[in-house]
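Deliverable D2.4 — example input (structure tokens):
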């Protein structure tokens, strides 16, 4: 079931999430297979904590591995990925369903590599959803900062 706060965001923007059986899209690979698209079109969301205690949600192509040099350049040194409990506490979403919608107190960073796809699919707050939309609309809805997370 899509969380009410996410459903509200989707309704305001005229978007509809794809919904599947619970637990069917917890990874980018499984989501891509389920939706029928290449893995890069899945907009995976990863939460990082910086050395000052600030949180940053990185949204990037599902087939991308983030280079530590790129993360340091964008977030700063000593940023670390949060564990499942901290991710849920900060975002309200469990890993596998973390999405960039309806977040407070988290900086959203959108990897420019997602722009190469006409349609991308972030989760909608559960591990059984995907929201088809454009990169431009994702940036508009989230107010996310567009960054280059390619290795140097």
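Example output (designed residues):
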């Amino acid at each position: 079931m899509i969380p009410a706060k996410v459903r509200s965001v989707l309704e305001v923007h005229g978007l509809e999430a794809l919904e599947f059986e619970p637990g069917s899209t917890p990874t980018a690979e499984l989501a891509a297979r389920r939706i029928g698209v290449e893995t890069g079109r899945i907009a995976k969301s990863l939460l990082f904590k910086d050395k000052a205690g600030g949180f940053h949600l990185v949204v990037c192509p599902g087939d991308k591995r983030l280079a530590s040099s790129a993360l340091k350049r964008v977030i700063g040194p000593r940023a670390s990925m949060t564990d499942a409990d901290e991710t849920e506490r900060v975002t309200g979403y469990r890993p596998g369903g973390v999405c960039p919608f309806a977040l407070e107190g988290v900086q959203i960073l959108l990897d420019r590599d997602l722009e190469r796809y006409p349609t991308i699919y972030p989760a909608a707050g559960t591990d059984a959803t995907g929201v088809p939309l454009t990169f431009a609309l994702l940036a508009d809805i989230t107010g996310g900062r567009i960054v280059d997370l390619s290795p140097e």
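The longest strand covers residues 42-49.
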